[in-house]
Amino acid sequence: MATYYQFVLPALRRMLGQHDIEPVIVKVPCKSMLKKQPGRTDFQRGILSCNDKGELVVDGAGMQGSHILSGMSRANCFIILPAESGNIEAGTLVDVQPFEGLV
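Structure (tokenized):
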């Protein structure tokens, strides 16, 4: 699902002449630690919500294996973790791509 959303959907849009559609990316603090090995960009499933102060925050949507669809069913965004990063500590600002029009 992540591969479709990140690569196939943009390619289909370009083939349809929709060259000006860029994904929405926001920087928000992560509520909890996220596990990641350096070496590749990760698109982890996340849950974007508002905290008690009305500020956007993101949390992981559970186990991140590509075969685990329950996390994708709970998610409303991708947390984009760059290739060079390792584990992400709680409170770290991360790039978040909210789902739009797909899920």
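Strands lie at 26-29, 42-50, 56-60, 77-81, 93-98. The chain has a mean pLDDT of 87.
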